[in-house]
Structure formats: structure tokens, C-alpha cells
């Protein structure tokens, strides 16, 4: 982010997901000073962190519905609060979703952060309860970023749980990755992780053909390490992988500078 786009004060960024809510406090230079994660269900009775005391404004991505939104509005009553929406374009990135406002605001913030950080075609992976795998290209007309679309699939745990729920006798999710799984737990884990990695490889190859350059693969979320480790075994991708902490929060900070 250029100095002219830096926030002028301390900003609270909050990413409310279906399962967890992640927050971060950024100083006037755009540096993350404090952060934490809470259960989304706990937002109603959330105790305000002391780190929020200096924050005069908050920028929020909420994909968890009206109850979570109302809880935060009450909690942040003394702040200038902005809930972002996904738009046709923002911060140098075009949104090619058929109905732009229907794109999850967490995905929108993540691709904006990826573009501002790398300024090159990327596959943006967010690995949480669900996994989103998004294609971010370069707009040939403007040279800016262009969100082209992406995949949504169950996350690593949810994918395994969907089998467990339907298969009597299959119980724990405690498997490990194996080249040739020889037990049910390892078979579930290995199959689920390979499914996610395979989807990343597929979209990466497609974007690479269209953009004439191998895209960077930017991975965030709780299962980022496991996905990174498996993809790193692919010689073509090994040098194009990056794990990005707090990607959505970084995107929210960039969007906040445009809102003001």
C-alpha cells in the first residue's frame, strides 16, 4: 500500500466467518499490532479487547448473517463502522462475478490483498470450514487486477465429516497423509487433502494457460500448512507457493482506505 493510501489512524478489521471471527488492529502505518480469533457464536457476548481502545473506526467482512452483524453493531457503538460489500470494482481490482454483490466479502477482500501484495496473476486459497479457490488475473486493458471466479468446496475437516456422518463405524478424524493409505482414517484424510490440492492445481493450470504465466498460489486459513506441504511436492508449483497470514484482514484495511 502506498503512503498516500495509508489509514490516518488506528483501524480495527474484523473477518466474520461461519465458524470463527478473526480480528486485527492496524496502526497508522498499516502494521498489524494485535489480533485474535473468537468463535462466531460468541460475538453476542463478546468482551471488547483492550487493544480496541484506540480504534475510532472498524471495517468488517461478515458472511455469517444478520445476528452476527447486529451483535457487532452493538459492541462497536462508539466507532465508525463499515460493513463492506462486494462491488463491480475496488482498489484496482475488477470483479467479474455474474452478480458482483453475491461474492463473499471475505473472498473479495482476500483477492484485493493478494493483488496489492503481488501485482501478478494468483490463485487465492482460503482453507477454513469451506475452501475457496479463486482466480485473480491481470486485466489486459488496464493492467490492474481482475477477479475471474473460483471454486467453493468443503474444507478438510468438513469433507471428512461428511463421510463419517453417512458411514456407520467410521468415527474419528485423526488420519495422516499417506501415499498408499492402509486404514480408514488415513484414507479419509489423504483423499480429502488430495481433492483440495487437485482443485488448486486444476484452476492454476487453467489460469496459467489464459494468462500465459504460471500464477502464484497464495494460501490462507487454518489448513494452509497442510495444503502448502502437499502442493510443494509439485515441481512446477513449488516456487510459486506462499502462505499468507491475515489475508482478509489486510484486504479489509485496503478497502477501508477507499471507503474513506
Task: Give your account of this protein's structure.
The chain has 260 residues and is α/β, with parallel strands linked by helices. It folds into two domains: 3-83, Nucleotidyltransferase, domain 5, CATH 3.30.420; 119-246, ATPase, nucleotide binding domain (Nucleotidyltransferase, domain 5). It has helices at 66-75, 105-118, 156-164, 184-211, 224-231, 247-259, and strands at 11-16, 20-26, 32-39, 57-62, 80-83, 89-90, 93-95, 122-127, 130-138, 145-154, 216-220, 241-243. Strands 6-7-10-9-8-11-12 form a seven-stranded mixed β-sheet, with helices on both faces. Strands 3-2-1-4-5 form a five-stranded mixed β-sheet, with helices on both faces. A hairpin with a 5-residue loop joins strand 2 and strand 3. Helix 2 packs across helix 6 and helix 4 crosses helix 5. Mean pLDDT is 92; it is low at 1-8.
Number of helices: 6
Radius of gyration: 19 Å
| Integer tally of domains | 2
- As a percent range, the share of helical residues equals 25-40%
Which CATH architecture of the largest domain is right?
2-Layer Sandwich
Q: Topology as H/E string?
A: EEEEHEEEHEEEHHEHEH
Strand order of the largest sheet: 6-7-10-9-8-11-12
Label the overall shape.
Answer: globular
CATH fold descriptor of the largest domain: Nucleotidyltransferase, domain 5
Mean pLDDT: 92
The count of strands amounts to 12
Entry keywords:
globular, five-stranded mixed beta sheet, Nucleotidyltransferase, domain 5, alpha/beta, seven-stranded mixed beta sheet, 12 strands, 260 residues, 6 helices
